[in-house]
Structure formats: C-alpha cells, structure tokens
Amino acid sequence: MFRQLLPITALLTSTFLMLTAGGLAGILLPLRAGMEGWSPTTIGWLGTGYALAFTGGCIIVPRLVRRVGHVRVFAVLLTLLSMSMLFHGLIINPWAWTLFRALAGFSLAGSYMVIESWLNERVTNSTRGMVFSVYMIVSMIGLLVGQYILPFGDPATQALFMIGALIYAGALVPTGLSNAQSPRPLTQVSLDLPGLYRKSPAALIGSLLAGIIAGAWNFLSAVYGRDIGLSTFGIATMIASSMIGGAIFQYPIGRISDFVDRRYVMVVAGIGGVALSLAMIMIQPTTPWVIYALMFAFGTVLFPIYSLNVAHANDFAEPSEFVKISSGLLIVYGVGSMIGPQIAGRLMDLNGPSGFFVTMAVSYAAYGSYAFWRSLRRASQAPSARPDFAIRPHDRPQTPETFQLHPLSEAAAQEE
C-alpha cells in the first residue's frame, strides 16, 4: 500500500491543502450569507452557480491543459481559487457571490481533473478502490480541518476569507516542487455521455443523484445546523462528524466493492441514506450529541457513493477510456449539484429545516432503487473478470476533451 502511495505523496498533500481551504469556504460562506439575512433559496443559487461553472470547467479546462500543460494550469486554477476567497470578503452581495462561487467551481473542476489524471496513471483495477478511497479520505480530512478553522475567527470579518485564500495559495507548493512525473500528454479522445450510459447506466445515473445529494449538503447543511439552533462550533462539529464517519468507512466500503458487485454496495448505501434521513425528520433532534451521532452515521453513506460510481463505470471500460469516463461522470455529477441546492432550498423555505432531509431521503431512495433495478437488468462482472488497468506503454491514459486533439507532448504544447 505504502509503495503505491509514495509517488503521489506531494499530489495528496496539495489535495489536502486545497480541500482544507474548500472546507473552510463551504461552512463560512453559507453562515455569512445567513448573517446577511439571505434566504435558503438565495443561498441555493450560490450552489447552482458553483455547479454550473464546475460542469463548464470539465469541458473547458482540457483545452487549457493542451495549450500550456497540466502543472501550469493547476497553478492558475489554485490562484483563481485564492482570488475567489478574497472577492467574497471584499464584496457582500448575493449575485456577486454567485459569480465568485462560479469562479471557484470552474477552478475546482479543473483541479480535480488534474489530480485524478495523475491518480489514474498509477492504479490497476485491483487497487482502484483502495487508491481512490485513500484519495477521498485525504480529501475528507482536509475538509474536516477546514471546518475547525471557523471557530477561530469571526465570520462577520474578512480574516477568515484571507486565511482561506492563503491556504489555497499554499496548496500549489508541494506539487509545484515535486519531481514526480506529470500526467501523460493529451491524445485524441472525445466525450460521449450516451456511450457512457450504455456502458454503465448505474454509474451515470448514480453520479447524477450523488451530485444532487452533495450539492444540497455542501451548500445547505450549515444553514440546517443554524436553523436547528446550533452554535458556530456546533455547526462545525456537526459537519465534521459526518466527515469522520465518511473517512472511517470510505476505505472498507471501497474494498468491499472490489470483491462484490458494486451495485449491491450502492443499494445498501441508498437504504442507509433513506433510513437516516427519515430518522432526522421524525426525531428532529435538538440535543447536540444526538445530532453529532446521527450525522456521523449519515456520513458513512454520504461520502463514499461518488467513488463507487467511478469504480463501477471503470469496471466496464477499455484501458484507453477511463479518464474520459471520469470526466463524463464529473459533468453529470456537476449537473446534479446544480439541482440539489435548488430543491433543498425551496423545501427548506416551505417546510423549515426538515425540508433538507426530505431532499436527502428522496434522492437516496432513487439512488438505491436504480442500482437495484440495474442489477436485475445486467449480470454482475466477477471481480476476477474485471479488466486490468495497469499502465503499459501502448495504453496511455487520456485527458477528456470535447473536440479532437493531436498527440502532443506538454513541451510541444508549450512551444505552440
């Protein structure tokens, strides 16, 4: 395990710092918006703007990578993330914040594509669940650390926005100074969502529903905590509890899915999400430790579901397709993330805090039900029969694009 992770240590460190700043932004912005008197629906628009630009980034960023290379694009995207945090602190206006969150969404989409291109070069199908689980664990720990920066500052001032900008800038240092090999050159590839659906319907629809769940969670969970009376520290602990649950169970769930039909794991996650959402609606807990315990349990089925979709889709892919598939799933996930904040925001305006978990219950029910239905439509692929994705000289991973590319090295692209 450690031999497989050593070459990507710098990349994982940059990921950790990037997500630490993202975790701070994720809790700071909704709380500051609430302090300004903005409604859940208005805050939901911040999430929609973020997700729309996130989806656009999946399409546009590969063009930039072809022109100047992965490392330079990664540096620019982290700079834009830092600028986005500073803009939020300077201009307090819901429509301006929607644009600033769109800038962050665009930049994070490109950053994820660079990071996941790097990871995909260093996994085989037998280790994909493990490597991506470690990647998700590092991401969640970063988000967790970011939550607890909030209690050390006042959301009504600019200080926390400046701290977030500094952390984003610092995320460039480990990867910028690393001597690890960059992702391989861009080659000819096109994006094919209909083909992705034919190849793996459960992964495509699952990514859409995972996006709805994540979009609602990322932008309205802090509002939910505020509405049920939690303090700033309590909201951070509530969100952190879910992340701890996700971090602990991410690896076991990923490994289990390497040995059984991944759709069965998706079904179990859907059932768990419905049960826990209904528990939050019916119990309506107000005691902090009860809220934290339930959120810990909720996190166990909240964070692993996207990596299950990615792994399941790649089980049915050719070696030259897995980066293209990852990009397609990110785009569908981004579309879902546009929808989630709008649904949850309106339900919270109508029904109060319980509207948040109504959105979650319905989404998880659809997620598990569709995975179960697909398991009846197509037989599972035995783990031993899953294709090997070991990188060979003639099987180079490809960066997703929406138009045809000529094989170019990064150096040649930079010269152009």
UniProtKB/TrEMBL annotation:
Entry keyword set: Membrane, Transmembrane, Transmembrane helix
Biased composition (Basic and acidic residues): 389-398
Transmembrane helix found in the keyword field: yes
Matching InterPro entries: MFS, MFS_trans_sf, MFS_YcaD-like
Stored Pfam families: MFS_1
Any one Gene Ontology cellular component term annotated for this protein: plasma membrane
Entry's Gene Ontology molecular function annotations: transmembrane transporter activity
The keyword Transmembrane belongs to this UniProt entry's keyword annotation: yes
Region (Disordered): 387-416
Membrane-spanning intervals of the chain: 41-61, 73-92, 98-119, 131-150, 156-180, 201-220, 232-252, 264-283, 289-310, 322-343, 355-373
Source domain of life: Bacteria
Protein name as it appears in the record: MFS transporter
Species name: Phyllobacterium sophorae
Lineage: Bacteria, Pseudomonadati, Pseudomonadota, Alphaproteobacteria, Hyphomicrobiales
